[in-house]
């Protein structure tokens, strides 16, 4: 029986605890993690090497090695900083769109449009609205435009860089 023995006892406790924890966790309806491309990191390493080479030319090999070592240590932190996480969570009837530290309840959103490359580029450049909120990365070519429906907020829309805009629009279901 599950109550006897170490394996049954542990599995019963873990099962009961995981069921309780599941009750408190918000339901994630959508999650996408957008990492920087390898070309970005390769360019960064090339720039680091150039800087270390300049230090070596001005000083000596030891200072250049220390400089390169410190710069290489920073790569995971830069990788994490440029990573973008998009989630749509919902609990108790309240759904929220979160992108990194920015978040908004979906009841304040009124419509979402999946944008192709040309439309996305125009909204980031020529048709830029200073009241809009942009969450983009330079390597993303497509995105989603989500309109804000809140009289207290001057923000007209959110422009979200995305690799799968159709899936994000479907997840929002505004």
Topology:
Blueprint: H1 6-24, E1 27-34, H2 38-58, H3 61-73, H4 75-82, E2 84-91, E3 94-99, E4 102-105, E5 109-115, H5 117-124, E6 133-135, E7 142-148, E8 157-162, H6 165-172
Parallel strand pairs: 6-8
Antiparallel strand pairs: 1-2, 2-3, 3-4, 5-7, 7-8
Helix pairs in contact: 2-3
What would you say this structure looks like, in words?
The protein is α+β, with helices and mostly antiparallel strands and 174 residues long. It has helices at residues 6-24, 38-58, 61-73, 75-82, 117-124, 165-172, and strands at residues 27-34, 84-91, 94-99, 102-105, 109-115, 133-135, 142-148, 157-162. The strands form 2 sheets. Strands 1-2-3-4 form a 4-stranded antiparallel β-sheet, sandwiched between helices. Strands 5-7-8-6 form a 4-stranded mixed β-sheet. β2 and β3 (94-99) form a beta hairpin. It is elongated, with a radius of gyration of 23 Å.
> How much of the polypeptide forms β-strand, as a percent range?
25-35%
- SS-based structural class? alpha+beta
What's the overall geometry?
elongated
- Mean pLDDT equals 84
Give the C-alpha Rg.
23 Å
Number of helices: 6
Largest beta-sheet details? 4 strands, antiparallel
Could you name the ranges where pLDDT drops below 50 across 5 or more consecutive residues? 1-24
Helix content: 40-55%
How many β-strands, per DSSP?
Answer: 8
**What is the terminal-to-terminal distance?**
49 Å
- Give, in spatial order, the strands making up the sheet with the most strands: 1-2-3-4
The H/E string reads HEHHHEEEEHEEEH
């Amino acid at each position: 029986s599950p109550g006897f023995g170490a394996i049954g006892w542990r599995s019963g406790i873990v099962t009961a605890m995981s069921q309780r924890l599941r009750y408190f966790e918000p339901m994630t309806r959508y999650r996408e993690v957008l990492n920087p491309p390898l070309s970005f990191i390769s360019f960064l390493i090339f720039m680091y090497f150039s800087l270390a080479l300049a230090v070596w030319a001005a000083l000596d090999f030891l200072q250049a090695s220390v400089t390169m070592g410190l710069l290489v240590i920073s790569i995971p932190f830069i990788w994490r900083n440029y990573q973008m996480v998009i989630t749509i969570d919902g609990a108790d009837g309240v759904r929220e769109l979160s992108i990194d530290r920015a978040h908004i309840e979906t009841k304040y959103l009124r419509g979402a449009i999946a944008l192709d490359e040309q439309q996305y580029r125009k909204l980031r450049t020529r048709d830029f609205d200073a009241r809009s909120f942009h969450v983009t990365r330079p390597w993303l070519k497509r995105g989603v435009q989500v309109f804000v429906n809140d009289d207290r907020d001057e923000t007209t829309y959110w422009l979200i860089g995305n690799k799968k805009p159709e899936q994000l629009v479907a997840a929002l279901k505004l």
